[in-house]
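User: Predict the structure for this protein chain, please.
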Amino acid sequence: MEAKLQNKRPKHLDLLKIKLPLPGVVSILHRVSGVLLFFPGIPLLLCGLQSLLESEQSYAALQVTLLSPLVKITLLLFAWFFLHHLCAGIRYLLLDLHYGIALAQARASSKLVLVAGILLTLLMGTFIW
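Assistant: Here is the predicted structure, written as C-alpha cells:
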C-alpha cells in the first residue's frame, strides 16, 4: 500500500500553478512586508536619521534627496509595506482572539486588509507628493 501512495506523490511542486486563497496571499504579503521593513527599511531609516541630525548641510542634502520622484516612490512603497503589515497584524491579533475565524469572515477580513492597505497608502501618497 505504501508503494501506491508514493507513486501518486508529485515529483516536483510548480509554485506558479498553485492558486492560493486570499487569506494565504495576505499571509505571505504580511511576511514579505515584515522582512522588507526589517532589512532594507531599518538601515535606510537610520541612514536618513543620521543625515538629519549630523549637520545643517547634511539636513539640506537630505531635503533635496527627498524631493526626487524616485525617492518619493520608494517612500510610498515602504509606506505600503508598513501599512499592509500593520493592517494584517491587527487582523491576526483578532484571529488570535477568535474573532473572524469562520471562512466567510476570514475572506472578508483579508479583502478588508488589502483594501485598507491600498487606501491608506494612497492617502499617505497625497501627503508625500
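The radius of gyration is 21 Å.
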